[in-house]
Amino acid sequence: MQKISIGKAGEILAASYLRSIGHTILFQNYRKRIGEIDIISLENDTLNCSEVKTWKENNGYHPKECLHETKRDRMRKVYFYLIQEFPALYHLTPSFNLLHITEKKEVRFYSSIF
Known about the structure:
Elements: H1 2-20, E1 24-32, E2 35-43, E3 46-54, H2 69-85, E4 93-101, E5 107-110
Parallel strand pairs: 3-4
Antiparallel strand pairs: 1-2, 2-3, 4-5
C-alpha cells in the first residue's frame, strides 16, 4: 500500500514539474490492455510520453534500467493506441521520456531516451 502512495506522489510531482517547464498535461495513467503511459503531455509540436519512477538513490542501479526492451515496446504500442483513438495527435512528434523522482523529491528529466 505504501508503495502505491509513493508512486502516486511521484506522479503528482512529475506532472507539476512538466507544467513548470511549459508542458500541457493531456493524460495521466493512460492505460490500455497492453500497458500504460504515466503522463502524456504536449510541448510545442511534441507529444511527450513519460514514465515516472520514484527511486531510491542507493538501490544499486539507475531507473533508466527499468526501461528494458519489453517496457519500451509496451509504451510504443500504447502510443499507437493513443493516436488511433485521438487522430488529431498523429501529426505531433513523439518523445519517450523518463522522470526520475529522488528521495529528496528532486525531479530529473531525461528526454527522448528511446
